[in-house]
Design brief:
Oligomer: heterodimer
Radius of gyration of chain A: 13 Å
Distance between the termini of chain B: 41 Å
Number of strands of chain A: 11
Helix content of chain A: under 10%
Largest sheet of chain B: 6 strands, mixed
Distance between the termini of chain A: 37 Å
Number of strands of chain B: 12
Structural class of chain B: mainly beta
Largest interface: A-B, 25 and 25 residues
Chain lengths: 110, 116
Amino acid sequence: DAGVTQSPTHLIKTRGQQVTLRCSPKSGHDTVSWYQQALGQGPQFIFQYYEEEERQRGNFPDRFSGHQFPNYSSELNVNALLLGDSALYLCASSLVSEQYFGPGTRLTVT
Amino acid sequence: AQKITQTQPGMFVQEKEAVTLDCTYDTSDQSYGLFWYKQPSSGEMIFLIYQGSYDEQNATEGRYSLNFQKARKSANLVISASQLGDSAMYFCAMREGITGGFKTIFGAGTRLFVKA
């Protein structure tokens, strides 16, 4: 049973560019959440998708957008990248009493 | 507003001893869930244990137990018989709402060092 998978593992982008990160949830999970984790800090909630709709959103600008597909996989898009967007981006899939994270995508903006 | 507080930036424990990592939370919701995660230096976030706000028994998973004191709004993690591999960052997290549309917030974390 595959856990949560994310791609790519690492990514280097230039300021102003756009990036798309991908996530496949754990088998049986239908809810996907995205988090940003800056170095030395706890993860910050970006948004959550369920039934292909954004259900909750954290304090992130509209440059951060997402999508969920019918097979429950999800994408996180970030437009107009800033240096401050450099972080580990974590995807998590969940049921009521469990939430499992993927290995993350390390994004570096130069 | 939701808030998670972990007051111990770093903790040391001797191998084979037990250690308690503190977590307090603040919420106005009656229905919420509490999680603990381990994050080793590799960066992967590992799910350890979950406690629902309506669960009457403290959650346990192997060497991990969650000391849930609802009135005090605390959810401390107890690791028994510490191992060298337990050295990592530990995060307490809270989810408000149990079904549909919820968000999870994390504390700042506690770095645990296990000494041989």
